[in-house]
Write a structure and sequence with these properties.
There is one protein chain. The chain has helices at 2-90, 94-105, 112-161, 177-185, 189-210, 221-237, 245-248, 253-261, 276-290, 293-317, 329-338, 340-343, 351-358, 360-376; strands at 218-219, 327-328. The protein is mostly helical. The protein has a two-stranded antiparallel sheet with strand order 1-2. Helix 3 crosses helix 5. The longest helix is centred in the first third of the chain and has 89 residues, at 2-90. The protein starts with a helix and ends with a helix.
Length: 377
């Protein structure tokens, strides 16, 4: 007993130190284990959130691609087809050419004054038809891309709001499919409602630019290029800055709703659903984009590129047939008139549409637009 007490007296300090070290180690281990468990739980939570985010991104991308597909395969082709039929209807020049042919075959069928008036009218309307087709095709191509980017922004916002919800994106009530469809349907507004005033003002511009150009004077390809560009520039400034937006989008969304729900017999069909609030928001955003200086820049670049291509096409047709000074304007008019046909071809086979889409400045604009829309959100 005395030996045990002596052992304790000699080693009790070491025992206390050992017990202290052991106890401290145990506490540290428990703290470490608790910390490890928290880290593990956090990693599991983060992994779950990552999977949810990946699912949302995949769902968003699928939905966005569906909108892009609908726009490329349905919205733009249908709008172009409708536009082609309206321009052919409103700017049918066959009655003018028939009268001129009659006068050519029968010397007393029309007077010299009438013949000159017919030629002057044909001159103005030939350029009006081509310039209207050129401008409308270019703007439709650009506007439909704006629609897709704006819809993509709203899909992004919808995904962000619903990121903590298990509700699928397609079932969301706040961004209805009606809102998307109604907005995409505004691509037809130009052909259905804006085309008449567009043609009137394009004819005014063509009349002003062509008034000093005589039918018998030689007309070079440089002059042709300058003439078309001058008509387009003058047209774009008629009515004030950015007035041309009214050809593409209705100024009043409520009035547009009345246009859309009114049936062909003149009665209002209230069974046609339309998300007016959402449509107004989307159209307001579209107007903001279209009125921006950056969009004006790509409009100018696109129009000039299309004019370059048209003039090159006519130049190729006249190889070996035209002197350096050019051909008489009267002989050039049939070729100018026919330019509307390739301009308004089906988008999938339309070289002008494909060229506009592939212009570096246009691609950069839509890349920045999509990114900035998300940043601003």
């Amino acid at each position: 007993m005395l030996s045990l007490r002596g052992f304790w007296n000699r080693h009790k300090r070491k025992v206390f130190v050992a017990l202290g070290v052991f106890g401290s180690g145990y506490v540290i281990y428990k703290l470490y284990d608790a910390h490890r468990r928290r880290i593990s739980d956090l990693e599991k939570q983060m992994e779950g959130e990552r999977q949810v985010n990946e699912f949302i991104r995949a769902q968003l991308q699928t939905h966005f691609e569906n909108i892009q597909r609908i726009s490329d395969t349905t919205t733009l082709p249908y709008a172009m087809h409708y536009l082609r039929s309206r321009i052919a209807e409103e700017l049918d020049l066959s009655h003018l050419t028939e009268k001129l042919m009659q006068g050519k075959g029968q010397s007393n069928a029309i007077t010299s004054k009438e013949k000159l008036e017919l030629w002057e009218t044909l001159k103005v309307l030939s350029f009006t038809r081509t310039a209207s087709s050129l401008w409308s095709m270019t703007m439709l191509c650009l506007y439909v891309r704006v629609q897709v980017n704006i819809l993509g922004r709203h899909l992004y916002l919808e995904a962000a709001r619903g990121s903590e919800s298990s509700q699928p994106l397609d079932e969301s009530d706040s961004f209805s499919r009606h809102g998307q469809q109604d907005f995409l349907a505004t691509a037809d507004y130009l052909s259905a409602h804006g085309i008449n005033m567009l043609i009137v003002n394009m004819q005014k511009a063509a009349t002003e630019v062509l008034k000093e150009k005589q039918l018998r004077d030689p007309f070079s390809m440089v002059q042709l290029h300058e003439t078309i560009m001058q008509i387009l520039e003058l047209f774009m400034n008629i009515g004030g800055q950015n007035y041309w937006i009214n050809y593409l989008i209705p100024e009043n969304e409520i009035a547009y709703r009345q246009l859309m729900v009114t049936s062909t017999n003149g009665f209002v069909d209230s069974s046609i659903p339309m998300d007016v609030g959402k449509l107004e928001q989307l159209m307001s955003e579209a107007r903001m984009v279209l009125s921006s200086p950056d969009f004006g820049n790509i409009v100018e670049i696109s129009l000039k590129k299309v004019v370059d291509m048209l003039v090159d096409d006519i130049s190729m047709q006249l190889v070996g047939m035209s002197p350096p000074s050019g051909v008489p304007l009267a002989k050039l008019l049939p070729r100018v008139t026919q330019l509307c046909h390739p301009l308004l071809e089906e988008p999938s086979s339309n070289k002008f549409v494909q060229t506009i889409r592939g212009l570096p400045d246009v691609e950069l604009f839509y890349t920045l637009l999509y990114a900035n829309l998300h940043i601003e959100s």
